[in-house]
Model the fold of this input.
Amino acid sequence: MSDRAHADDAAPPVQVTLGEIFRAFLLIGATSFGGGVMAYLRSSLVDKHRWVDDPTFVQMLAMSQSLPGLNSTNMAVLAGDRLRGTPGAAAAIAGVCLPGGLIMFVIGMLHSAHGDRPLVTAMLHGVAAAAVGLVAAVSVQIGRKVLTRMDDLVFVALAVVGINVFHLSVLVVLGGLGALAIWWHRPRAEAPVLPGR
Amino acid sequence: MSQLPALVGVFAYLSLLTVGGGLAAFPEMKTLTVERFHWLSSQQLIHLYSLGQVAPGPNMMMVAAVGERVAGVAGALLVVIAFLGPTGYLTLWTGRLWLRLEGWRWRASIQRGLAPVSIGLLAAGAISLAKGAIFNWIGVIIAVVVFALLLGTRINPALLVLCGAVAGLFVFGGR
Done:
């Protein structure tokens, strides 16, 4: 298959089987409670199995963040593809999603049946408030690493204003602002003379 | 059962908006599932999304719970496939292409440009969630305490959300 064509990019030390890929990602998918799947992925893929080296992991992470799709499922696809082509990618994404998917399916059933009971609703109000703190903290943690310049903050502010104030569709903001931001960081023939550099 | 095509369409579309993380698609998910299709209430969506933050694995597997609510097992299965399939396929092929574009000068521009936009989308998602999830000062306190503990310590987020559930039971349960 043509899937082997890029195998020389990061030839794993030994041939990894689909079962091994599935089991490794299933374990990550079952144990990564409380988010931060990326840390679990790194410790499994780089440290434990040595299937990818650190620079490759960082490169795949950057790719995962620029592409549509969840960062963790994108990583599973990219890593699985490197190890065993398309079937490897399928095994990896199935493994990482299966435990959480089953758990959320059961939670969905319970929520449909009992979600409107006053005590359950009270608990879920607390969960939702805690989740707001959680997603805010995660956004700040990611933002701290990436937002290094004033113009970055302008793009963040434009996205927030577009969605939360003008209620523009996420698609419009992503397409319009994304294109503008890529153009803003377009390749330049010579080093630009910017103030403050 | 006539909801199945709409479920597939909505979640395949939403998956394409998840640049930077699932949270980026939250405002659009609320618009479509609550206001447009009336599959569940805003409060129910927020609760399922919040529970999804605690489940292991990718934090958007809560889409299975929405699918289950609308159309049972078939709904859950189709929603998960619609949400993961198209973007998984896109990532597979873009990933292969990306390696060959090592020297392409726009590659760095795309990564550099999309980074702040995707963080803006995450922030917008967080604000949209907060608007629906927090409706009194006790909620504000829970959110701020969780936020501060997560940035200041290495405590497991799942444990904090569990504490939030207990706090909610005592604070909101008495009325």
